User: Fold Transmembrane protein 231 from Oikopleura dioica.
Amino acid sequence: MLLWRRNLKINHFSYSKGLSFPLLYLIIGFLVVLVLPLLIIYHVDQVNSSITTDFVAPELQHSKESVLLLHTFSGESVIYSPGVADLADLSDRALCSTTIQPDYSYLSRIKVSYSCSVGDVIGFELYSYLKMKMPGFSKESEFINQLILTSDYSNNPSISAETNSHIRLNQFATSREHPNSALLPAKGVNISPAFLPSVSPSLWNGEEALKNQTRRNIRFDESHHQTRWTAGSDGSFQLTMNYELATMSVQREASTWSSIKYRFIQYMAFFTVFAFVFDKLNDFLFQCGVFASFSKLEKINQFKKD
Ligand SMILES: *[C@@H]1O[C@H](CO)[C@@H](O)[C@H](O)[C@H]1NC(C)=O
Assistant:
């Protein structure tokens, strides 16, 4: 046995001067297995440096502020805003009442109804201010007003419309150079007060309100809606809005510790795979007798047996 070991040693170091091919192979192999995962996760990190994605269920409340524009068959438009009478001239005001029915069993759903004494309605625009709350959206996790615009049109004069409006969080980067500006937690203008009709009735208009909302790069918007119109004509119009916030995936900045943890996990994942492949490759190469010293050793052993 000792002799066998000595033979192995002799073969490794005396066969060729300097580093033998198998030793060089092993050193390069180990370096590849250790360094390649680092290079890979470095390149992965270029894309998503410190982002974590998680699922959250935001909470929804109505701010009791909204502006409803009704368009009639004769081409007129009338305006209603609960509690803000002086938003429009007297001749442009619509006579309406509103009810808000929060669904206490389901915090991300709310129903708002408008009953108006306006006939022959063929379209509406509704600017609703809904208050949203979500972990990390604002630091203190307080409710923040978001403008949700819904509009729909019908071919026929109608007495009612019922709309399901789906709301989602949008995260837009301010520029290519600032990809992290799209990540939660929201800061600055993203959590600044909304341009509510009650605050400045003389200045409020749909265009300015939309500009104010879309200046935010992390905001809630309507993603889509469906409306069922009921045709008819009795001098009244009823609009029912069902707002719904689905559980959504959000992207936020990872804390330092969790990014270290993720990098370590990424490294170990690649390292394990490379180490496994390298190990199998070694087995295969030795079995095939690719390494001259090893086949020489076998020959010596055979010779000794004989
Ligand atoms: C929206 O308008 C309000 C009230 O004028 C203002 O305080 C706020 O900064 C504005 N937000 C943005 C994002 O422009």
About this structure: Residues 189, 192-193, 195, 212, 215-216 surround 2-acetamido-2-deoxy-beta-D-glucopyranose (CB under 6 Å). The longest helix spans residues 256-288. The chain has a mean pLDDT of 85. The chain has two domains: 18-32+255-306, 55-251.
